[in-house]
Amino acid sequence: MEFESILLPGVDAKRPFIIAGPCSAETEEQVMETARELSARGVKMFRAGIWKPRTKPGGFEGVGVKGLPWLKRVQEELGMYTAVEVATAGHVREALSHNVDILWIGARTSANPFAVQEIADALEGIDIPVFIKNPVNPDLDLWIGAIERVYNAGIRRIAAIHRGFSTSDKKIYRNLPQWHLPIELHRQLPNLPLICDPSHIGGKRELIAPLCQQAMDLNYDGLIVESHCNPDKAWSDAAQQVTPAVLDFILNTLVIRDMTQSTESLTALRRQIDELDDSLLELLAKRMRVSNEIGVYKKEHNMPILQEQRYDEILKTRIAQAEKMDMDGEFMKTVLVAIHEESVRHQMIIME
Ligand code: PEP
Ligand code: MN
Fold it and tell me: Which end of the chain is more exposed for a tag (fewer CB within 10 A), N or C?
């Protein structure tokens, strides 16, 4: 696939380009006030959700078409470009008939090939930039598939938005970044612009700045950030929205390194190492928990902690497996002995 530049006339080509605006358009006043404050700080592209996909019914599902004339005011009075999320062919038609400048496909929609195809069919013969968020699940092919469907409809101005991946583990992030997936997307489609959405990855204000910086260090082209004139009172995603003034501050503190190819790859590889270490730690902690349960079982059944035959079997099989996987047997032995020692220590505490 060969993509064309998504930069609209008057938008600075300098990294990062910024799309900002509220999660949702709520009222005409909120839209105009937020847009005015953003425009005064040099933001040229204004986002606002008109149709909101909500996890449960009964939440605020967006103002619908009545919000589109508000966006027209943003274009006409402030000279900004506008971007909305489309999830159906009907949304595409409404957005186009109100001259919206940019469309994006949300994460729940890009996970559904039927929905993406319906949108792609509605885009046939139209020339408009379309940004495609990663699907909620960490499936790179599904993301690429969504991009291909839109590309096959004739759209050439495409960008990918990385907004993280859904997980039941909501400890730090609302949506796990899994940086290796957008990195791999970039490896496969090097001329596809990549935009980071720190708002939906982080889910909280404090994470916007570090996530923006990480995206810049990974050489992303742009950022899409939720910004609201009164974030605490936002009707959706209040915890992750920042005022235009805070956004401006965050953007001004970003360090944009002019990276050569080699440092870019190094940062990308290090990011992969970070993710892998995370998984290793998770697995180790899980193994420790299971070993503790075994300790409880042994106590209840009056069994000794050290089961030599079992230990011997673990060492032999794992070392052989490691060697097959091109790892040194001695190294594997050191790791296994350390893990075993720690498990025994835990089980001894349990026995006390
Ligand atoms: C949004 O951008 O407001 C949105 C609903 O995002 P996502 O599709 O990433 O959840
Ligand atoms: Mn949102």
Answer: C
The DSSP letter of residue 226 is E
E strand or H helix that includes residue 21: strand 17-21
Enumerate domains of the chain plus CATH numbers: 17-252 (3.20.20.70), 264-351 (1.20.59.10)
Cβ atoms within 10 Å of 228's Cβ, excluding its own? 29
Mean pLDDT (whole number) for 317-327? 93
pTM: 0.78
Q: Which residues surround ligand 2, an ion (CB under 5 A)?
A: 23, 237
For 177-205, the pLDDT digits (tens) are 999 999 999 999 999 999 999 999 999 99
The answer, yes or no, to whether any atom of ligand 1 lies below 6 A from the CB of 106, is yes
Residue owning the nearest CA to atom 6 of ligand 1: 106
Q: Give the CA-trace dihedral at 75, 80, 85, 88, to 10 degrees.
A: 40
CA–CA gap between residue 277 and residue 260 (Å, rounded): 26
Q: Is the CB of 49 under 6 A from ligand 1?
A: yes
Are the CB atoms for 194 and 17 separated by under 8 Å?
no
Choosing from 24, 197, 236 the residue with most ligand 1 atoms within 8 A of its CB, the one to mutate for a pocket test is 197
